[in-house]
Amino acid sequence: MTIQRLLIEWADVLNFRIMPALEPEAKRWLLVQRCNQGIKSVKEIL
To answer: What is the pTM of this model?
Structure first.
């Protein structure tokens, strides 16, 4: 199995199993951690 395939499978696990189980604050924190290279801020949308 290639590295690229493993990353795709991990992304699927994260998006469809882990993210739905997280509290909203934890989801926001995770988003900031994953995207902090190119995004300056994350707005909370209600």
So the answer is: 0.50
